[in-house]
Amino acid sequence: MAKIKVARKSTAIDMTAMCDVAFLLLTFFILTTKFRPNEVAEISIPASTAQTKLPERNILLIQVNKDGQVFMGVDDQNTRLRLLDKLKERYSLNLTPAQTNAFRLLDAFGVPMAQLPKLLSMSNDDRSRAKQAGISLEVVPPKQSEFMDLVQLIRQSNEEIRVSEGRPPSDIMKIAIKADKEADYEAVNEVIAQLQQKKVNKFNLITSARGSGEASTAKE
Amino acid sequence: MAEMNIPDKGGKGGKTRSKKQSTRVDLTAMVDLGFLLITFFMLATTFSKPKAMEVNKPAKEDNQEIEEAPIKQSKTYAIVLGKRDMVYCYVGADDATGVNVDSVTFSRTGLRSMIKDRQKAVQDQWGDKDELFVMIKPLPESKYRNMVDVLDEMAITGVKRYAIIDDFNSIDSLIAVGSGNRLRPTKGFNALKLK
User: Fold this and answer.
1) Where are the domains of chain B?
2) Which of B53, B108, B168, B192 is best to mutate for the A interface (most A CBs within 10 A)?
3) For position A213, what pLDDT does the model report?
4) Do A204 and B53 form a contact (C-beta atoms < 8 A)?
């Protein structure tokens, strides 16, 4: 008797469709991605139901970490350069062109002003690994704190850049505070109080969107 | 897939037949590469944009006492934030006698229902629940998260009038002492008193 031959099926699958899907997704992610900026401090933000979006650009970001250390960053590079000119004058710093360029590319920093040149002369890798002490909030009358100095100078620089670029007055820099949820209230409050001294009364607190789980806030 | 083309030894002389070659290409490697890159971009991307909560603080006028219209105590509600996520609330009064302080936690049954009850009481007494004025008083040892949570509760319960207040009255001091909280800020935080 002749056996019925089972047709041997090929194990090869047509990969074309899968390849299409993979590259479609890849294109999507390449186009929508915005790289996570180098974090200067580890901050886990609290959740809230607030729905307002943070403006994409032209913000002054003030970060407060768990220990109450303060870091600042401006996103506009022209403002950064203008700010550095003012800082050089105020704190009589001498900087090389390389250090100036490093500051232009620096997203956020948090060192006392006297240590700024040292921070800028580090390589990018060293800088991201170095522990930064935070910007000083200490007020020694009659001088204001370095933090208040910075707020003032950053806003001045930003205003000058805005005028020189001919942008409308409505395009002013927004101030956002990104604080760790475990930070002490008094540390954040100090930052806010000093901002208010500099006539900043309107700012954004950065929070993440709250999931549907309502109990996330209650620590049980 | 893994076929080997063994070139046949051209015996016989004569014509070499050009073999028909398959146009199919093995795409497995390409798919691998595609998914590898997808994984990279997925992990590198910040997908959920952070949201922002807008805060407007009253402008501080230098050396100028602003005379505010006093608010009736029966329209107020004070929320004191302490350490370890505790909340103490009371209906405003001038002295500590006969004040009923409730201590609750951040949860649907805790703080939110207290605020809702208070809104209802104000609604009954004054005919409009928006008359309620909530005073948020975070003690120095409370966490930043607590403040955000309370501000969030204000948005959820629809309280229109509220303020974060840093002056503590005698009742707040009693609460702080009773719950083991510090009342004074740490040294070095002095801008509050800076005029």
Assistant:
1) 73-179
2) B53
3) 43
4) yes
> Regarding beta strands A70-74 and A59-64, do their DSSP bridges make them parallel or antiparallel, or are they unpaired?
antiparallel
Do B194 and A190 make contact, defined as CB atoms within 8 angstroms? no
Q: Is residue A40 part of a domain?
A: no
Rg of chain A in Å (alpha carbons): 25
| Interface contacts (A, B; CB < 8 Å) | 191
pLDDT digits (tens, 9 = 90+) for B107-160: 667 777 778 887 887 777 777 777 777 888 888 778 888 888 888 888 888 887
Of A185, A202, A219, the CB nearest to B138: A185
Fold (CATH) for B73-179: Nucleotidyltransferase; domain 5 (3.30.420)
Does the structure show a pLDDT above 50 at A21?
yes
Q: What six digits make up the tokens of A210?
A: 């709250």
What does the pLDDT read at residue A212?
44
Give the gap in angstroms from C-alpha A182 to the nearest C-alpha of chain B: 6
- How much of chain A exceeds pLDDT 70, in percent? 93
The answer to the question of residue A8 being in a domain is: no
| Domain span at A168 | 47-209
Shortest Cα–Cα distance, B112 to chain A (Å): 12
d(CA A85, CA A102): 14
B62: closest chain A residue by CA: A197
